Amino acid sequence: MDKQKMEALRAKQLELLKYFIDACEKLNLRWFCVCGTALGAVKYGGYIPWDDDVDVALPRPDYEIFLKNAFAFLPDDIFLQNYKTDKAFPHEFSKLRNSNTTQIEANMQHLRMNHGIYIDIFPLDGYPSKEHEQKHFDMQRKLLMWKRFCALKGNRKGKARVRNAIFRMLGYHKRTAQIIAQTEKLYSQYPVDQSDYWCNYGNWQGQLEYAHRSQYGNGKKVFFEGIAVIVPEKYDEYLTQKYGDWRSDPPVEKRKTHHSIVAFDEGHSYTEYIK
User: Which of 158, 163, 21, 154 is nearest to 90 (CA)?
Assistant: First the structure.
């Protein structure tokens, strides 16, 4: 994506971030900037120079309140997308999308769903404390993830390609909402406010996503592109766990955006591209 398009994308994302923060404040919810957005806020005061998205998260109880009530604070053209509001949506988290724009990604271009510019909204869930429970939990999580991923298209190789073909042959790609409902039930069985460890399963990176709840704490106020945001209270511990030496930039060859965008238009609705 060229510089002009990147600036246009980020401008729309920041509008969505402001809507999100406004709703959270009015609903008195706990929330955090997470992942690369937390890193960017702490290290650069804004976006990581090569980053192309915004990630926020709420503990599960706050997340559910947001899903239930945020519509009252959002303009009509801002869509809160998840498996309940958009049946083809293939993720267990939510996105806040601008329906008057277009951001169609390669692995989801075949899905009949809202493809507006977005920010990601993740729930934070608990994690079992006993080892035998963790193993059983992880097996269930992995199976549900495989079933859900078969709805996406991409260049998979080896076992992943074979597994994806088998699951599609079994029709799991037609049951996305049902599978995500099962996933959500699995994740929420360990109440976040009763768990020592919190996890952002929607941004799954294995053990890097399991963090002691004290990392998040009450959060710390910093600025992201001039907007006051909240990052995990022990942000150094959080960022070190996820990124290692986060104060140093990665090699040039790894400074890449995360998404393969096949259609982008900040001024026209995605509906004009999927007719």
Answer: 154
pTM: 0.95
Contact 202, 91 (CB under 8 A): yes
**For residue range 145-175, what is the model confidence (pLDDT) as tens digits?**
999 999 998 767 888 889 999 999 999 999 9
Residue 151 CB contacts under 8 Å (≥ 6 apart), including other chains = 88, 90, 111, 172, 173, 176
Closest CA to 154 of 140, 174, 168: 168
Do 54 and 13 contact (CB within 8 A), yes or no?
yes
CB-neighbour burial class of residue 51 (10 A; exposed 0-12, middle 13-18, buried 19+)? buried
Here the tokens at position 10 are 């980020």
What does 49-80 look like in DSSP terms, one character per residue?
A: TT----EEEEEHHHHHHHHHHGGGGS-TTEEE
The SS3 call for residue 109 is coil
Distance between CA atoms of residues 219 and 215, nearest Å: 9
Do residues 12 and 98 lie in contact, with contact meaning Cβ atoms separated by under 8 Å? yes
Q: Residues 6 or more apart from 224 whose CB is under 8 A from it?
A: 17, 33, 37, 40, 41, 45, 46, 47
Residues 207-258 have pLDDT tens digits of 778 889 999 999 999 999 999 999 999 999 999 999 999 999 888 888 888 7
